[in-house]
Write a structure and sequence with these properties.
Number of helices: 8
Number of strands: 5
Cofactor: Zn(2+)
Strand order of the largest sheet: 2-1-3-4-5
Main location: cytoplasm
Organism: Methylobacillus rhizosphaerae
Radius of gyration: 16 Å
Catalytic activity: 2 D-sedoheptulose 7-phosphate = D-glycero-alpha-D-manno-heptose 7-phosphate + D-glycero-beta-D-manno-heptose 7-phosphate
Bound molecules: D-altro-hept-2-ulose 7-phosphate, zinc ion
Shape: globular
Keywords: Carbohydrate metabolism, Cytoplasm, Isomerase, Metal-binding, Zinc
CATH superfamily: Glucose-6-phosphate isomerase like protein, domain 1
Strand content: 5-15%
Helix content: 40-55%
Number of domains: 1
Length: about 190
């Protein structure tokens, strides 16, 4: 395949996934409402995931703490993917599976909303982080794809992107993530 054909293929796949998001939009709106309620009641938003999903967690946390499009007060959100001392000590002392659940245990309250990004829905550290958030009584949101994996059965809200292709799922996640920020900022 030529480079241009490969790019055309990626664009076509991307467009098909984005077009197929329509039926998911009421669920996205419900997550936005849960986020607005959480923030209005003094809660915070915690986010985590691996690899590209770690980057997505940081990206969305930055939009919430800083701003997406609108001038407004800073709102509380923390990506649990950024502190290398915590990630290495918990990873080293307890295991990589616990890098998010330990931070959820330390930081999460019942007023909070916790977002786990996993394209497979099965990454053990993400699943354990969501389980810990449930135990605490926070609202849980799974951002996933394919069949939703283990997250689908665990979360209060699961947003399953309509593809099993990891990069295409991630691209849809960021569109949904930006849209959530837009709705958080709406009057
Ligand atoms: O960005 C990509 C692939 O597009 C990778 O870094 C990807 O995020 C990593 O392989 C993750 O470990 C995949 O985990 P998950 O999405 O299944 O939870
Ligand atoms: Zn990626």
């Amino acid at each position: 395949m030529s480079a241009v054909d490969l790019l055309k293929h990626a664009v076509a796949e991307h467009q098909a996934v984005i077009a197929a998001l329509e039926p998911l939009l009421p669920k996205v709106a419900a997550v936005a409402e849960a986020m607005r309620t959480c923030l209005a009641n003094g809660g915070k938003i915690l986010l985590f995931g691996n690899g590209g999903s770690a980057a997505d967690s940081q990206h969305i946390a930055a939009e919430i703490v800083g701003r997406y499009k609108k001038e407004r007060r800073g709102l509380p959100a923390i990506a649990l993917t950024t502190d290398t001392s915590i990630l290495t000590s918990v990873g080293n002392d307890y295991g990589f599976d616990f890098i998010f659940s330990r931070q959820v245990e330390a930081l999460c309250t019942p007023a909070d909303l916790v977002v786990g990004f996993s394209t497979s829905g099965n990454s053990r550290n993400v699943v354990l982080g969501i389980e810990k958030a449930r135990e605490i009584g926070a609202v849980t949101v799974g951002m996933t794809g394919g069949n939703g994996g283990k997250l689908a059965a665990l979360c209060d809200h699961t947003l399953i992107m309509p593809t099993s292709d990891t990069p295409r799922i991630q691209e849809a996640h960021i569109l949904v993530g930006h849209s959530l920020c837009d709705l958080i900022e709406a009057d």
